[in-house]
């Protein structure tokens, strides 16, 4: 119900503010956003277990809010290419038989993404859009968590991985100078592999369903 009221408020705001001209081929739009990154992170396969994890072991990555920048180039009046820049940090914690355990600590993720978007809406009005495209996730500076260190792991690595993203959102004009309020939702599909080592020896390898929701809100400036 709260989401319903917010949607109505956004629509009402769009009806009372001055409109702006629809984007034209060659325009560039920059968005400054606050972004919620909400991954899944559950284990889909245990490829090697030298730590003797208990039966029913599962995992969950924690959520994070981070600033992001989106840069968009309009190829035509309705079609654009968009990329995003941002870094998000997460822990991977145990669930099921390992509830409360810390498996991975402070992994930083750069989700390099390029989406092709189609924009709807009439000139001067709100501009909903949908998009899809490839992604490549870089995993940086990951470490074993407290629990896996206690089981003998000294190093941890998550492999960089190609994935895919779909998105939908809306740009609501604020004035006729190219300023707008923007709301965006992306869903990524990604299956990385996590490996723990004791020295140079592999002691645990698991495959994960990461599949984060990436929900953003902020302002857009079109030039």
What does this structure look like?
With 223 residues, the protein is mainly β. It is built from two helices and 15 strands. A hairpin with a 2-residue loop joins strand 13 and strand 14. It is elongated, with a radius of gyration of 21 Å.
Descriptive tags:
223 residues, mainly beta, eight-stranded antiparallel β-barrel, four-stranded antiparallel beta sheet, 2 helices, 62% strand, elongated, disordered N terminus
> Which strand order spans the largest sheet, edge to edge or round the barrel?
1-4-5-7-8-11-12-15
Distance between the termini: 36 Å
Gyration radius from CA atoms, angstroms: 21 Å
Uncertain ranges: 1-18
Average of per-residue pLDDT values: 90
Category from helices, strands and their pairing: mainly beta
Give the arrangement of secondary structure elements.
Elements: H1 2-16, E1 28-38, E2 42-49, E3 57-61, E4 64-74, E5 79-85, E6 88-96, E7 102-119, E8 127-140, E9 143-144, H2 146-150, E10 155-158, E11 161-173, E12 179-189, E13 193-198, E14 201-209, E15 213-222
Antiparallel strand pairs: 1-4, 1-15, 2-14, 3-6, 4-5, 5-7, 6-7, 7-8, 7-9, 8-11, 10-13, 11-12, 12-15, 13-14
Question: Summary?
Answer:
By secondary structure, the chain is mainly β. It is 9% helix and 62% strand.
